[in-house]
Design brief:
The strands form three sheets. A six-stranded mixed sheet has the order 3-4-2-1-5-6. Strand 10 and strand 11 form a beta hairpin. It is built from 15 helices and 18 strands. With 470 residues, it is an alpha/beta fold.
């Protein structure tokens, strides 16, 4: 390994456990894998978890890179571009992969015992920094404590940034925007309007670089209270559709009337059969699950657009795990589905004690036949036809898990992803790397996808005050 301008990135185990393709995400710079990382990968390869699968994929990639190379070739560094997925397209300039082929020792502070794996990686990093003073040696780790210890011993460290969808979660697409105060004075002269059945459309001229996305909602603060969905933007012209009103005084959906503009926008997308994918993001109490379930029941039981509702979520406990749960798949998932049961009580009027017992039982029996609770663990390989799928707590999924789930959708299936990126329980996910953030950003350009960020809590004044102040 020579001294040159290329950076040298030391990969921690958790980076490769999180993303096996991290090996190829450092452009022309070199990558170094300590022997301790290989040992930890070997220890984590067994099992059916997402981490174990990533470890096995990492091992296969490393094996392909080595590909019968002799010791001298390994010592000099192995080129990464030869097995890069896009290497056949040309213009792929990657660095080399180095392994710890000889002991790299340096004195650590007495407070850091060298027998610990993390500290051995720090020791390797400090030795490389000492051996190659002209190179920028950086430890890449998703472990915050590891980065703190690295800074304390004088080794530069960074988080793994390649999996970030955005630099800041505040930049995430909200799905709606307020129109400027004088918007219609500037654009209303050449506006056209027409009706197709009960639907009202508008066409107006916009700038060539208009920043609107398909199915983005536009709200005007003028007296008319104009609210519309962007259906298309093409060649300096935008086609808008007026929003349906599911609020107070309307028929509502399964007895649910929307209480604010954001909920009304969300219900428009949930009830639109041309929208195959809907993501709802918001704090606790904004009505995400209630809206999705009401729309699912309306379109499954009354309109027969779907043959059943499937409800699933990531099973990550808030506190200590309660341990083994007996029973079938559905029985094991029931404790995780408290949100489903709570909202079903609201939708079916089960809290109404005046209802006859037989009516409650018959309603519950009907719903149990049309609402299925499934575990994410058994989704791989399945295809769901004509289903209304609700994925709750989606913020705890990785982008790879999200892709696995969404690609299960067959003909006539609608997927609704619900979550709050402010309540992530997964240890290696953040607001900018969550699978929910990933799909919101990637689906915003698709004409059959829609997203709404709900901001106004409607659960209770207590819940709203707690969300704002705690």
């Amino acid at each position: 390994m020579t001294n040159d301008s290329k950076r040298l990135f030391i990969l921690d185990t958790n980076v490769l456990m999180h993303d096996p393709m991290a090996l190829f995400n450092f452009e022309e710079h070199d990558v170094f894998i300590p022997m301790t990382v290989l040992e930890e990968l070997d220890a984590g390869k067994k099992g059916m978890s997402e981490v174990s699968r990533n470890v096995r994929e990492t091992n296969r990639l490393i094996d392909q890179i080595i590909n019968d190379a002799n010791f001298n070739e390994i010592k000099l560094g192995l080129p990464l571009e030869r097995i890069h997925p896009n290497s056949k397209k040309g213009n792929i300039h990657l660095g080399k992969l180095y392994f710890e082929t000889e002991p790299l020792l340096v004195e650590l502070p007495i407070s850091l015992p060298s027998h610990k794996a993390d500290n051995h990686i720090l020791q390797t990093g400090l030795a490389l920094k000492e051996h190659y003073p002209n190179r920028n040696v950086t430890l890449v780790t998703k472990d915050i404590n590891m980065r703190i210890k690295s800074s304390a011993v004088g080794l530069h460290s960074e988080d793994y940034y390649n999996d970030r969808v955005l630099e800041d979660a505040d930049l995430l697409y909200t799905g709606w925007e307020m129109l400027p105060e004088h918007f219609f004075e500037e654009h209303g002269q050449n506006m056209k309007s027409w009706q197709e059945g009960s639907r009202t459309f508008y066409e107006l001229e916009v700038a060539k670089d208009c920043p609107w996305y398909p199915n983005e909602c536009l709200i005007s603060e003028n007296e008319a209270g104009f609210k519309a969905i962007v259906r298309s933007v093409d060649d300096g012209k935008a086609t808008l559709e007026y929003l349906d009103d599911f609020g107070k005084g309307s028929n509502g959906v399964w007895g649910i009337e929307t209480r604010n503009p954001e909920q009304n926008m969300a219900m428009n997308f949930l009830m639109d059969p041309d929208i195959d994918f809907v993501s709802l993001l918001g704090i606790a109490g904004t009505g995400k699950t209630l809206l999705a379930l009401a729309a699912g029941l309306e379109q499954t039981l009354d309109l027969n657009l779907y043959n059943e509702i499937i409800m699933t979520r990531a099973t990550i406990p808030i506190g200590d795990d309660i341990g083994f749960l007996p029973g079938t798949e559905e029985e094991k998932m029931t404790p995780w589905m408290g949100a489903l049961m709570d909202n079903l009580e609201v939708l079916t009027g089960a809290e109404n004690t005046n209802s006859p017992e037989w009516e409650k039982e018959s309603t519950q029996f009907l719903l149990s036949k049309r609402i299925k609770i499934k575990s994410l663990n058994f989704m791989r390989g399945r295809t769901f036809q004509n289903k209304f799928i609700i994925l709750d707590e989606a913020q705890n999924l990785t982008p790879k898990q999200m892709k696995t789930l969404i690609t299960r959708a067959g003909q006539g299936t609608k997927i609704v992803c619900i979550g709050n990126i402010g309540q992530i329980d997964s240890p290696y996910l953040s607001e900018t790397t969550s699978g929910l953030t990933y799909v919101v950003d990637r689906f915003k350009d698709w004409e059959h996808g829609a997203h709404i960020t709900l901001q106004q809590g409607e659960r209770s004044r207590l819940a709203l005050f707690a969300s704002d102040t705690l």
